[in-house]
C-alpha cells in the first residue's frame, strides 16, 4: 500500500494548506441539504440510506407504511412512469419531510429497446456509438420513471469462464476506460436534472473481474500494482467523467470485503480518486459481512460498512434497522450518518427531484420514446458494428446466386437468447430472430430450416436431430448454422468450466462440415468460447454475440453484404480452455514461449497463441499496411512524436479498418507488458484507396507505475506496433530522451 500512503500524505498536506484559505461560500445545494438534515430524525436519516427492491402492489399497506414513515430512500426494480408516480405521490404527500424517492434499475444495455450486450458493444470500438447507445437506454429509462442505472460495469476481466465478462468492456484497460467514460456521458448527458437522462452508477469497485477460476463471487487475489494498473483506471475514467454514483463489489480486497474496506472506499475511491457522489453496496453485501464471518452481527456489519464509507444499503435493510439505535448507543457517530445522508440528498438534488419529484414520470413521453423507430435503428447500428467476422474463406457475403439456403441450429429461431442477460424490459415478441432476419431480407432467398440439435445447455442430450439437419442441408447452396448459448448461460452467476460449445452443437457443425457445402457458423454468445473445432469445420464464422432486439436483421445484413463487418475482438478467444486466463498484454517471464527445448513457459500440449487475438476481426474488404514512418527517431519529454502508416484497401468493396497502435517499453525497472494498446483509429477506404493514418505520441502515453507504484516515465527505447490487431503489426522503435 506504499503508493497510497505516499499519495495520502500528499493529499493531507494539500488539504492542510487548503484549510488556511478562506472557506468558499456554501452552494444553494449545501444550504438546502444542511437545512433538510437539521430537520431529520435519526429514523428518517437511516431511511434515506435504505434501498429496497420492490415489485409488489402499490397498495400494500406495509409498503405504504414504510414510505409514509420515511423508511425508504430509494427503490429498485420498480418501473413504469404511472406506477412510480403513484409511489412518489405517497412519499411526497404522506411523509413528514416530503423527500422524494429515487428509482433505480439495472438498465445495462437498454431499457426496452435492447442493444447488444456491453462486451459486444465494446467489439465495435466505436466510442461515439457506444455513448449513443447508452443515451438510448437513458432516454427510455428516464421516461419510464427511472433516475439511476446500475451501469456501466467496468470490471476488466481476462477470464471468459466468468459469466459477467458479458457486462463490461473486455480485457483491455485503455479501451475499457474509453468505454467507461463514454457510457457515463451517454447515460448522464450534460445535466443530471434533465429528465431525459439518468444518473450512472459505475460498478463494482473494485477487482471483481478477477474472481478466481471464473467462479462468480469467488475470492480475488492480486497485487496493489494490478489493482492500480488494471482494475482502477476504468473507474477513474468514470469519475473524471462525473459519474454520480459507485457500487462496491461483492469481492474482498486483500481479504477485506469491499463493503467493509475503508482503505478501498474512503482512502482510494474518495480521497485518492476524488469520487464525491454517493456510494452504495451491492445486493445485501452488508448482511454478507455476517455470512462471511467478518462481522459477528448486523450491528457490527453496519458499523464496518458505514465507517468504510458506504452511503446506501442495497436490500439488506441493516442501516435502516440498526443505525438509529447505534447512534443512540454511541456505537457510531451521528456525524457519520449525516455525511452519508448528505450524499444521498445531494444526488436527489442534482437529479432535480426537490424541484419536481414527478419530472421523470411522463407517460406521454414514455409512450413516444420507448421502442421508438429511432431507437430501434440506433440499436441495430450498434448490433451491426459489434459483430466480428472471425473467418471467411470466400463464402461471405452470400451471393445473389446462392438461392437455396438452409438455416440450421438451435439458436436460429430463438428470440430471448438474442436479448442476452440483463434484458430489463426487453420482450421476445419485439425481437427479430436470425431466421426471420434472413427470411425478410430483400434478396428473397429460398429458405429451409432444420433445428439440428438442442442448445444442450446442461450438456446432456439433444443430438437426435442431427441426421435430419444433415439431410436437409445436402442440396443446399449454402448452410447457415446458428449456434451458441441461451440468454442465461452468461451473465451474473454464469461461471463455467467448459468453454467449448455443448457437444451436440459441435457435432452438428462437424457433420455439416462433412457435406462439403459452404458452411457459415453464426455464434450467439455473451463470452468468448473456444471455437477451434467450429472454425475448422466452417468456411466462415461470425461472432454475433447477444445482439439485442434488432440482432436478427443485423446478422442478415452482414451475411448478405449490405453491411461490411467492422467489429474487432475486445477479448482474446482461446484455442483451448487450458490457456485461460489469456490476454494479449502479458509480461515476459524468465523463459520464452518458443524455447528450443522443454524449458519454455508454454504448455507442452497446446500452442501458446490464441485462436483469435485481441483486436482481431475481418472485413469483406482487404487491408494492407505500409511501413511505419516517424517524423523523428527520438523526442524529448516536452515534445510530440508523430507516427504514420499507409493503409490500402486491396479488396473489391468499401470497408472500414480499425488501425491499432501498441507500445512496449523495451527496458524498464519492472517487467512491462509485451505491448499495450495506446490508440486506434477507424478509417473508411474505397477499393484501391490509400490513406495515411497518423498517431501522436507524447510522454503521457509512456507513463507507468514504477517500483514504488509512483507515476513515472523513463527515457529510453520503446517499440511501436501499428496494425490490424494485437498480434499482426508493423513495428519500429523510437527513443524518449
Ligand atoms: C449485481 C449488481 C446489480 C444488483 C442489482 C447484484 O447481484 O452484482 O451488478 O446491479 O444485483 O440487481
Automatic annotation (TrEMBL):
- In this protein, which residues make up the domain named Fibronectin type III-like? 657-726
Q: Which organism is it from?
A: Flammeovirga yaeyamensis
Question: Is Oxidoreductase included in the keywords of this UniProt record?
Answer: no
Q: InterPro entries in the record, alphabetically? A: Cellulose_Degrad_GH3, Fn3-like, GH, Glyco_hydro_3_AS, Glyco_hydro_3_C, Glyco_hydro_3_C_sf, Glyco_hydro_3_N, Glyco_hydro_3_N_sf
For this UniProt record, the keywords arranged alphabetically read as follows: Glycosidase, Hydrolase, Signal
Q: Which residues form the signal peptide?
A: 1-24
EC main class here is hydrolase
What name goes with this protein? beta-glucosidase
* Gene that specifies this protein: bglX
Q: Which reaction does it catalyse?
A: Hydrolysis of terminal, non-reducing beta-D-glucosyl residues with release of beta-D-glucose
Its taxonomic placement starts with: Bacteria, Pseudomonadati, Bacteroidota, Cytophagia, Cytophagales
Query: What EC number is given for this enzyme?
Result: 3.2.1.21
Q: Name one GO biological process term.
A: glucan catabolic process
PROSITE patterns per UniProt? GLYCOSYL_HYDROL_F3, PROKAR_LIPOPROTEIN
**UniProt keyword Hydrolase, yes or no:** yes
Q: Name one GO molecular function term.
A: beta-glucosidase activity
Amino acid at each position: 500500500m506504499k503508493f497510497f500512503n505516499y499519495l495520502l500524505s500528499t493529499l493531507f498536506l494539500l488539504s492542510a494548506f487548503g484549510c488556511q484559505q478562506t472557506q468558499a461560500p456554501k452552494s444553494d445545494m449545501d444550504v438546502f441539504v444542511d437545512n433538510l438534515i437539521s430537520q431529520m430524525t435519526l429514523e428518517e436519516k437511516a431511511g434515506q440510506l435504505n434501498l429496497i427492491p420492490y415489485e409488489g402492489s402499490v397498495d400494500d399497506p406495509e409498503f405504504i407504511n414504510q414510505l409514509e414513515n420515511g423508511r425508504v430512500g430509494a427503490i429498485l426494480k420498480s418501473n413504469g412512469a404511472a406506477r412510480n408516480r403513484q409511489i412518489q405521490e405517497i412519499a411526497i404527500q404522506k411523509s413528514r419531510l416530503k423527500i422524494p424517492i429515487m428509482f433505480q434499475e439495472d438498465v445495462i444495455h437498454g431499457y426496452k429497446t435492447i442493444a447488444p450486450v456491453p462486451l459486444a458493444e465494446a467489439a465495435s470500438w466505436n466510442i461515439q456509438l457506444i455513448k449513443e447507445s447508452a443515451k438510448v437506454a437513458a432516454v427510455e429509462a428516464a421516461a419510464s420513471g427511472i433516475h439511476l442505472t446500475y451501469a456501466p460495469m467496468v470490471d476488466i476481466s481476462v477470464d471468459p469462464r466468468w459469466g459477467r465478462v458479458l457486462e463490461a468492456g473486455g480485457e483491455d484497460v485503455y479501451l475499457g476506460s474509453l468505454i467507461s467514460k463514454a457510457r457515463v456521458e451517454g447515460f448522464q448527458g450534460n445535466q443530471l436534472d434533465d429528465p431525459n437522462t439518468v444518473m450512472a452508477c459505475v460498478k463494482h469497485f473494485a477487482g471483481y473481474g478477477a474472481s478466481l477460476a471464473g467462479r462468480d463471487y469467488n475470492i480475488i487475489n492480486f497485487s496493489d500494482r494490478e489493482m492500480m494498473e488494471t482494475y482502477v483506471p476504468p473507474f477513474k475514467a468514470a469519475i473524471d467523467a462525473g459519474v454520480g454514483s459507485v457500487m462496491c463489489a461483492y469481492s474482498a480486497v486483500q481479504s477485506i470485503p469491499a463493503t467493509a474496506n475503508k482503505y478501498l472506499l474512503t482512502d482510494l475511491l474518495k480521497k485518492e480518486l476524488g469520487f464525491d457522489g454517493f456510494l452504495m453496496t451491492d445486493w445485501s453485501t452488508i448482511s454478507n459481512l455476517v455470512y462471511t464471518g467478518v462481522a459477528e452481527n448486523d450491528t457490527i456489519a453496519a458499523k464496518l460498512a458505514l465507517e468504510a464509507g458506504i452511503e446506501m444499503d442495497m436490500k439488506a435493510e441493516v442501516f435502516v434497522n440498526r443505525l438509529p439505535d447505534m447512534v443512540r448507543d454511541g456505537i457510531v457517530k451521528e456525524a457519520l450518518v449525516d455525511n452519508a445522508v448528505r450524499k444521498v440528498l445531494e444526488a436527489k438534488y442534482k437529479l432535480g427531484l426537490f424541484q419536481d419529484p414527478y419530472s421523470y414520470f411522463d407517460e406521454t413521453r414514455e409512450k413516444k420514446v420507448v421502442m421508438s423507430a429511432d431507437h430501434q435503428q440506433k440499436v441495430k447500428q450498434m448490433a451491426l458494428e459489434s459483430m466480428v467476422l472471425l473467418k471467411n474463406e470466400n463464402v461471405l457475403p452470400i451471393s445473389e446466386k446462392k438461392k437455396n439456403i438452409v438455416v440450421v441450429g438451435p439458436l436460429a429461431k430463438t428470440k430471448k437468447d438474442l436479448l442476452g442477460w440483463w434484458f430489463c424490459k426487453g420482450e421476445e415478441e419485439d425481437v427479430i430472430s436470425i431466421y426471420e432476419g434472413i427470411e425478410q431480407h430483400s434478396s428473397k432467398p429460398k429458405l429451409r430450416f432444420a433445428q439440428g440439435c438442442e442448445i444442450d445447455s446442461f450438456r446432456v442430450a439433444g443430438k437426435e436431430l442431427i441426421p435430419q439437419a444433415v439431410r436437409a442441408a445436402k442440396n443446399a447452396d449454402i448452410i447457415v448454422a446458428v449456434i451458441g448459448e441461451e440468454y442465461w448461460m452468461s451473465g451474473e452467476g454464469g461461471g463455467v468450466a467448459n468453454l467449448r460449445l455443448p457437444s451436440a452443437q459441435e457435432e452438428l457443425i462437424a457433420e455439416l462440415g462433412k457435406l462439403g457445402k459452404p458452411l457459415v457458423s453464426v455464434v450467439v454468445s455473451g463470452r468468448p468460447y473456444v471455437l477451434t473445432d467450429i472454425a475448422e469445420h466452417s468456411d466462415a464464422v461470425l461472432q454475433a454475440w447477444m445482439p439485442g432486439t434488432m440482432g436478427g436483421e443485423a446478422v442478415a445484413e452482414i451475411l448478405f453484404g449490405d453491411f461490411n463487418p467492422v467489429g474487432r475482438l475486445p477479448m482474446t478467444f482461446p484455442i483451448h480452455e487450458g490457456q485461460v486466463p489469456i490476454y494479449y498484454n502479458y509480461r515476459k517471464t524468465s523463459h520464452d514461449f518458443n524455447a528450443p527445448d522443454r524449458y519454455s513457459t508454454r504448455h507442452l500440449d497446446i500452442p501458446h497463441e490464441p485462436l483469435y487475438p485481441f483486436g482481431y476481426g475481418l472485413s469483406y474488404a482487404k487491408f494492407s499496411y505500409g511501413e511505419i514512418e516517424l517524423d523523428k527517431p527520438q523526442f524529448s519529454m516536452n515534445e510530440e512524436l508523430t507516427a504514420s502508416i499507409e493503409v490500402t484497401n486491396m479488396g473489391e468493396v468499401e470497408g472500414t479498418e480499425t488501425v491499432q497502435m501498441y507500445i512496449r517499453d523495451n527496458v524498464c525497472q519492472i517487467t512491462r507488458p509485451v505491448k499495450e494498446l495506446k490508440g486506434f483509429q477507424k478509417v473508411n477506404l474505397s477499393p484501391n484507396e490509400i490513406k495515411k493514418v497518423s498517431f501522436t505520441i507524447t510522454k503521457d502515453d509512456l507513463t507507468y507505475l514504477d517500483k514504488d507504484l509512483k507515476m513515472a516515465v523513463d527515457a529510453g527505447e520503446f517499440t511501436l506496433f501499428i496494425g490490424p490487431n494485437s498480434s499482426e503489426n508493423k513495428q519500429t522503435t523510437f527513443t524518449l530522451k
